[in-house]
Amino acid sequence: MAEVVHRNLELMLPELEELERSGIFSPQEIKEIVRRRRGMEYKLQRRPVRREDFLRAITYELNLDRLRKVRKKRLGVTSARRDADYGIQDRVHSLFKRAVKRFKADVRLWLQYIDFCRKSRHHVTLGKILARAIALHPNKPGLWVMAGKFQFEDQNDPSSGRSTMQQGLRSNPSSTHLWLEYFRMELMHVDKMKKRRLMLGLEKSEDEELEKLGAEFFSYEIPSIVFQQAVKAVPNNVQFLVSFIDIYRLFERSEQRQEEVYSCLRRDYSHLADCWEALARRHWTNIDTTTLTEVSSIEEVVEGCYREGLGVTVQPSSLWRHYLKWCREVTENEGTDSTQLRVGPIYFV
C-alpha cells in the first residue's frame, strides 16, 4: 500500500513544483497539500474503500483548484506549463475514474462525473463517460437524455442525437421523460433548420418535389410522428398528452400540430376529467394578451367546455374541482362575482 501511495505522490511533483515556483502556493502550503493528499491516498488504498472517501478527495481537489484560479488571477500569473493549470483537474478525473470503476452500480456517482466533465468542458471525456454509463445502466432514461442532448447540442450532430434517443426508447419504451425530450429535440432541430434557411435566404426552392418535402418538414411532420408513436407506447396518460401541447407552445407556428393533440384528447379520453380540464384551459392560455371584451367571450367558451365535459365524464367530482378552481382564478383576477353567478345554477342542478 505504501509503495502505491508513494508512487501516486511522485506523479504530483511536477504540478506542485510549478505551483510553488509561480508563487500561487507557498512552500508551507505545498507541504500541507502533500500531507492532505497522502492521507486521502491511504484511505483510498484500504480495503474496503468507501464511496465517501472518493467524494471527500474530489471535493478537496475542486476547492483547491478554485483557490488556484483565484490566486492566479490576483497575482497575474501566466503559466506556460500545463502541469500548473490542469494538474488538479487531471487528478479529479483520475479520482472519478477510480470511483466509478469501483462503484459501477452507483448512478449518482456517474452523474457527478458527467456534471464535472460538462462544467470543465472536457467533451471528449464526456462522450466516453456517457457511453460507459449507458452501457452499464441502459434502464436509466436520464442517461439516454443526457447523451442525446450532448450529441445534438454540444456536438451539433442531430443524426447521432436522434439515434441515441431512439436506442434509449427501445430500452425504455414506457419512459415519458425520454419520449418528451426526444420530441423536444426534433422540434428544436426543425426550428434550427428554419432559422438557418432564413439566414441563407433559402425561403423557397425551385424544385416542387423538394419544396413539398421541405414544407412537410417545417410544419413539424417528424415531431408529429414522434407524438403518435409516444401515445401508442404510453397509453391512458392524459397529462402525458398535455405535456406535448406545452412543448409545442414553445415553438412558432405549431398551432395546427397542437390541434392534433387536442383532437386525440377529445377522441380517446373524453371520459376523463383531466381531458376536459385541458380542453377548457386551452382557451385561457393567452388571456393576458386579450382585451376586456374578448375576455368575457373567452370566459363563456371555457364555461361551455366545462359544461360539456360534466355531461360526458365519468369523473364529475374531479371536473367540478377543476371548474371551481378556474372560477376562483377568474374572480381573483377580475375582482368580480360574474363567473360565480353563472356557476350557481349548474352547481345545484
TrEMBL record:
<dbReference type="GO" id="GO:0030515">
    <property type="term" value="F:snoRNA binding"/>
</dbReference>
<protein>
    <submittedName>
        <fullName>U3 small nucleolar RNA-associated protein 6 homolog</fullName>
    </submittedName>
</protein>
<keyword id="KW-0677">Repeat</keyword>
<comment type="similarity">
    <text>Belongs to the UTP6 family.</text>
</comment>
<feature type="domain" description="U3 small nucleolar RNA-associated protein 6 N-terminal">
    <location>
        <begin position="9"/>
        <end position="91"/>
    </location>
</feature>
<dbReference type="GO" id="GO:0032040">
    <property type="term" value="C:small-subunit processome"/>
</dbReference>
<dbReference type="GO" id="GO:0034388">
    <property type="term" value="C:Pwp2p-containing subcomplex of 90S preribosome"/>
</dbReference>
<dbReference type="InterPro" id="IPR013949">
    <property type="entry name" value="Utp6"/>
</dbReference>
<dbReference type="Pfam" id="PF08640">
    <property type="entry name" value="U3_assoc_6"/>
</dbReference>
<dbReference type="InterPro" id="IPR011990">
    <property type="entry name" value="TPR-like_helical_dom_sf"/>
</dbReference>
<keyword id="KW-0539">Nucleus</keyword>
<dbReference type="GO" id="GO:0000462">
    <property type="term" value="P:maturation of SSU-rRNA from tricistronic rRNA transcript (SSU-rRNA, 5.8S rRNA, LSU-rRNA)"/>
</dbReference>
<keyword id="KW-0698">rRNA processing</keyword>
<dbReference type="InterPro" id="IPR003107">
    <property type="entry name" value="HAT"/>
</dbReference>
<dbReference type="InterPro" id="IPR055347">
    <property type="entry name" value="UTP6_N"/>
</dbReference>
